[in-house]
Amino acid sequence: MRAALLTAYRQPLEVREVAEPDCPADGVILSVLACGVCRSDWHGWSGSDPDIVLPQIPGHEFCGVIEEVGPEVRRWRKGDRVIAPFILACGACPDCAAGNQTICATQIVPGFTAPGAFAERIGVAHADHNLAALPEGMEPAVAAGLGCRVTTAWHGLTGRAALKAGEWLAVHGAGGVGLSAAMLGRALGARVVAVDIQDDKLETARRFGAEAVVNAVDTDAAEAIREITGGGAHVSLEALGVAATTEASLRCLRKLGRHVQIGMPAGAHAAMTLPWDVVYAGQLALFGTRGMPGWRYPSLFSLIESGAVDPAPLVTRRIGLNRAGAELAAMDGPTPPGVAVITDFAA
User: Fold this and answer.
1) pLDDT level of residue 148 (50, 70, 90 thresholds)
2) To bridge 177 with a disulfide, which of 167, 185, 232, 239 should be the other Cys (CB 3.0-4.6 Å)?
3) Which of helix, strand or coil describes residue 88?
4) 37 φ, ψ (degrees, to nearest 5)
């Protein structure tokens, strides 16, 4: 089958023929319909993720059609259209039993600890515990675009920070996760302030539900948010994983505010110096969040099917497999609004 391989950090991906994946006994083989190109993939491409052993096939935001079913699978059949969370949980440990699949100790992460979906086909383990059926009529590119952006934002806002209608939500970074958070926050009845350093991304954030925007190049973002919100945000979400925006996220909160760390701190940002006096004095709550359990897909799909949110505009670039490496390299600098999704695995 055709796949794009990471064979050396910060180098072009190699698109070539590779061996077909083996079907896990408790899993399936999917023919990949679409796969998002995510900043987490960029972390892997740049050498910031210690889980990756080269060579590796990236890609963790995927949907597909089941082509083969392992003998232990009970819920799925050949031909089913499905999506999977990027954290494939075992389904049997105490954390999984408690509904906390994102912290499963034996989790599999496609593109990082196992071959990913920058490929025509992918093997997906623990299918009964992770797969969710795609809603009828949902375009594959839109489904893949949900990826770890919309799903992680949904779980971060509802499963972790418990965002309430009428609260102020500050979103630091108007990339895929940030735009998703703005869209979902608005749907939940929150008032949204978006922060970025690119005016085009801020204008896009307005279209996705931001009531106010702040260009951090021109002003102190935390101070501006405190003024806009009349004292500070109730919830602040950091979507980049860098020290400057994490500090701004903490400083923009009102007392008893909740900070949600969605951006992955890696490389030089893995150990940040932060204003712990602000955390202490404001009695702030800090939530780390990564991914979404597979069992939460129905709640997100219900929101989409109700018409309260439309994730389709998130997908601004549909590309061929050959373009995946260029998309990753472009993340070294400013990128255009929206997300790229691989939809053609022959090109």
Assistant:
1) confident
2) 239
3) strand
4) -110, 115
